[in-house]
Amino acid sequence: MRFAAVLLLGAALRAQSPTFEERKLTMIDAYARYQGKGDYGYAEIAAKLWRHEDPAWCSKKLEELLVQPSGDMFWMYPVTAIAYLDQGQLTDSARLALRKSWKTYMPYRGDTENHFLLYYSCLYLMSQMWPDADWYTGKSSAENMEEARQWIEGWVRLTTTRGQGEYDSPHYMGVYLLPMSYLAAWAKDPAMKKRAQMMLDLLIADYAPENLDGLFVGAHARVYETQLVEPANGVSVDFGWVWFGLGHRGAVPANYALYYLLASGYEPPEVLKLIATDRSQPYTHYERKRTRNRWRFYDDLHGPVYKTTYVRREYAVGSDQGGVLQPIQQHSWDVTWSVPNARGVQNTFFTLQPYSSTRELQTYFVFNPDGAVEGVVKSKKTYDSPDKLLGGSPFEKIVQDQDTVIALYDIAPETRFPQVNGFFSKDLEEVAEDASGWIFMRGGDSTYIACRPLQPYSWRPIEGGGRRLFSPYLKNGFVVQVAPRSEFAGLAAFKKAIVALPLEFRLEPTPSVKFRSLRGTTIEFTYGSTPRLNGTAVDYEHWPLFGGPFVESAVDSQKIVLRHGSLRRTLDFKNLTVTDSR
Amino acid sequence: MRWLLGLAAFPLFAQSSLYVAMTVTKEYVVGAKLPPSGLFVKNARGEWQHEGFNHPFIFSLDYDVADPSVVYLAAGNGLIRASAQGWKILTGSDVTELRDVSVDRAGTIYFAHSHGIRMSRDRGATWVEIGATLHRKFTEAVRTDGQQVVEGGEEGIFRTLDNGRSWLLAGAAGFQITRIEQSPLDRCEWAATTQGGGIFLSHDCAKTFESTGRIGVGATLYDVAYDPRQAKRIAVAGWGPGVAVSDDGGKTWQSRNSGLPVPEVVSVIFDPDVRARMYASVRDDGLYVSNDAGLNWVKQGLDGSVINRMRFIR
Fold this sequence. Notes:
The structure holds 2 protein chains of 2 kinds. Chain A is 34% helix and 22% strand. By secondary structure, chain A is α+β, with helices and mostly antiparallel strands. Chain A has a domain at 18-162. In chain A, strands 14-15-10-7-6-5-4-3-22 form a 9-stranded antiparallel beta sheet, with no helix packed on it. Chain A has a 6-stranded antiparallel beta sheet with strand order 8-9-16-13-12-11, with helices on one face. In chain A, strands 17-18-19-20-21 form a 5-stranded antiparallel beta sheet, with no helix packed on it. In chain A, helix 3 runs antiparallel to helix 4 (55-65) and helix 9 (174-186) packs antiparallel against helix 10 (190-207). Residues 1-7 of chain A have low confidence and may be disordered. By secondary structure, chain B is an all-beta fold. Chain B has no helices and 28 strands. Residues 1-14 of chain B have low confidence and may be disordered.
């Protein structure tokens, strides 16, 4: 009986904490054994082939889908997976249809970093598979592979020296992981394979220290508004769950995660698991990224992005330096607090200057001016709305020190929306506007937030709940201090501590703040000038590619060190070596 | 079949074929299903024929005079050679978002792209970047007459006589250039359209371009065309001005929008075989034709499309 009880207990524990392999299988089976109406198309075919199930259905369905391909690079990645997962299961007819489609359909290469990576990774692998095929490119397989190799290697070099342009996207992280997973699994060239395996470590390391319960926190490029206000909607949650058992996955995972698992299905090493899950001590993590390609109005194709992310068990605070660093979908700073289950919870707080302009679009795209904004609004509905919550602004500058953020605004009067917005979630508790000018609030059970608007404001309702702070003053700003609830006897004690902090500010001729934070740092910040922390100017020139207790890398070094305790993994991209030590 | 449009008015003895680079992208974003788009040619029966692949972003086309069956397409994904043998992408991963293409009589190909200008003397087998010495690299328009290359980008019109070793400012400083054309009747007459600055004309073989200040200032002019059958007749297409025609070499302009649904026109061309016949593309609406130099327009099909560039090829 006692033995049986132990077995049952063990089984129960396993049920509570499934292993990586069990989590992986759960995700794959959401597609392979889908029971709902209709089917998942290519994704279901790929998942069934991985499982070696129902090849007749897979063949028939594939031929149906290939009658009229569409989707560009988003077509390339499922059919590439199907081609490699086939392994003799598909009918000759289905396989022929697949091969023929790469001659008769020209998938567009797109205009973003993720488009190109998907495109070239798939073209590389398909050309490798069929060395004598005819292609829509009009080139030989060898020419396709060489072109793809050059781009992929260039991307790896740029990413390991200056960072990604579509950095830290809670959504698009999947379309960087997926092609690297493909190449790690299916590339025959040992160097390509090794490079992809190392990039998987790097991409996971790019997320691991900036996650809170699986949520990708801090400043982002390319985030959608639904993911912004409710971080659990990000694709990152599926990866956090499958890699580290963090958070709560969706019923059906994003297909990016599926395809990642169907290829290499890479399980992160122990050092990354520890980095992702150890929140025993607060820490500040730094990253340098780059802007997307700036085709017009700048001398340099890429500008630097300086990221700061402070993480502790209770919450995370993250930011970039402000400005328009990428078009449309930039998110420059926020506070994210921990909740037991983030699904359905808007556990985040931030402010922004809602900005849209043809100039922004012409910087990053080759658009003609007329109809450009309307064209963007077709797919990014809020881009040209005054009440939007997403996007960078040339009139916003930000500094962060640990869990203190100061955001200043000096807005050109002729801009489309001369105002600032603040997102006050429906899930904030105990929101109180104090006579001191501070707004106090509680996020979840663990986090106190204080926000000091520097100009008058009013409240506007947000559809679906919550309020938007609206302030139509051109010289503007916010001082934000976050603290764990555990450091105070209650909200009153937090208020008292915040109000006692020295704060001086002026708004003319340019906004300027001097503030001593709860952590004892004196922050001096004038819009347009280099901020000073305890009298020392912030050193942007020597900002690392990665910095902090867990990930370190100097700009241009191509050497990334992952560490936790005595565990250390060194990724040397110049020599394509991985060194582990403990 | 929706593209097989009856064009009874089109003369059967026409010597040139009208090629258009068009897109139905009203509801399209990369990755979405694309209605028939790309390279279309009007065949001898006056029907539109879709040539080659469905393609969302072809911005310009030109052809090899030594072999007019070879058409070069400046496309978002590279410089494409379209011929009876099929399509071939002639460029690699190092260029993207091509905006314009120009082929000289010797077959040298120049294309404008998002970060410069490339040249090939071997019909696209190899390429040389000739825009590296430009201050700002984005290039929207490029034209060559075999002696010089004239380009328009973010900062005005520049010309080079030494294949990009040096570039000389030719005019429109500070304006974004949208198109550059050379008169087929007088090779020293050139025109360039701009974003906001109207039209700039050159009467000295592209050495200098001067603003006429008379049409399109404050709007965007997207295209300019010389009438190959009538000296001094020029047309411009723009957003706001629609179509305007000058019969005195750009000194005066007449608005010619009767029959167009909106004055939002992105491309315009004269028919080299039929006097006073013009074509104009209204954005997201399709193609219009006029048989009286723009006085009256009627719909000619390609519904819902935007035609980025039109070209008659003999």
